[in-house]
Design a protein that fits this description.
The chain is about 80% helix and about 0% strand. The chain is built from eleven helices and no strands. It is globular.
Length: about 280
């Protein structure tokens, strides 16, 4: 039963995100910065959930929960690349909405294709560097083999907690990574929505406010879902060491969030809902 549940969730996640990618790439109407970031986010969601779910399905089917040393390090590396990219992409999308609402006349000039591609490449390179820092710290752990992790995948934070002694350098690196990929993206997203809110308050009509904010509703929902479940994972692991209390938020974070993202963007976005019907009529 558990195998069928997670398999169906995984297939729906991949199919839903592939449909968004197909819609954005095939229809010139969607060739804007907002939908470009959305298509990249869908690619990242597929990679993010594919890092953990297929291995979990194999474990359920084989009744084995072991993973090799190299496999665990590989999973940590790939997981962090896609996870960090998701955080940075959501921040870029918040900035995109800020420019669209606060500077609508200069939107196409500011969010030009060259800038969008450059920003995505920067997030990709930064995510690779961040994942390799975690892997280098994990390689220093001498008690890494034949240990039990209370989760269904090699969670980086739990793997690093296996170290008996945390050196001053390791702590500095952790705080640096947390600031660069946690604090600054969160601050950037909050600042963007603060500026968006102040701009919306200056719109005289309620209809105008609703129309402007409706373009942010999908993104804001995904941000709350992703950061909310991510924070829940780390609070749960810090407060409780029960495998169930840790695995449930982790499943929300790695499986449910990528599953819901396509539904949130398609159900709350009128353009994505209407364009397939228009294309069919043509």
């Amino acid at each position: 039963m558990l195998f069928g549940l997670f398999l169906s969730m995984y297939l729906i996640t991949v199919l839903g995100n592939l449909l968004i990618i197909l819609a954005v790439t095939s229809d010139p109407y969607f060739h804007t910065a907002m939908y470009f970031f959305l298509s990249i986010l869908s690619c990242v969601d597929i990679g993010f959930t594919s890092t953990t779910v297929p291995k979990m399905l194999v474990d359920i089917q084989s009744h084995s929960r072991t993973i090799s040393y190299v496999g665990c390090l590989t999973q940590i590396s790939v997981f962090l690349i896609f996870g960090s990219m998701e955080v940075l992409l959501l921040t870029l999308m918040a900035y995109d909405r800020f420019v669209a609402i606060c500077h609508p006349l200069n939107y196409l000039l500011i969010m030009n294709p060259r800038l969008c591609v450059s920003l995505v490449l920067i997030t990709f390179v930064a995510s690779i560097l961040e994942s390799q820092l975690h892997v280098l710290m994990a390689l220093q752990i001498t008690t890494f083999r034949e240990v039990e992790i209370p989760n269904f995948f090699c969670d980086p934070s739990q793997v690093l907690d296996l170290a008996c002694v945390h050196s001053f350098t390791d702590n500095i690196i952790k705080y640096f990574i947390g600031t660069l990929f946690g604090f600054f993206p969160t601050l950037g997203t909050l600042f963007s929505y603060y500026k968006i809110t102040t701009s919306l308050l200056r719109i005289p009509t309620s209809g105008g406010k609703y129309k402007a904010f409706s373009t942010c509703g999908s993104h804001l929902s995904v941000v709350c879902l992703f950061f909310g479940t991510g924070i829940g994972v780390y609070i749960g692991s810090a407060v409780s060491h029960s495998p169930r209390n840790i695995a449930v938020p982790s499943a929300m974070y790695t499986v449910v969030t990528p599953l819901l993202n396509p539904f949130i963007y398609s159900l709350r976005n009128r353009d994505i809902k209407r364009r397939p019907y228009k294309a069919a009529n043509w």
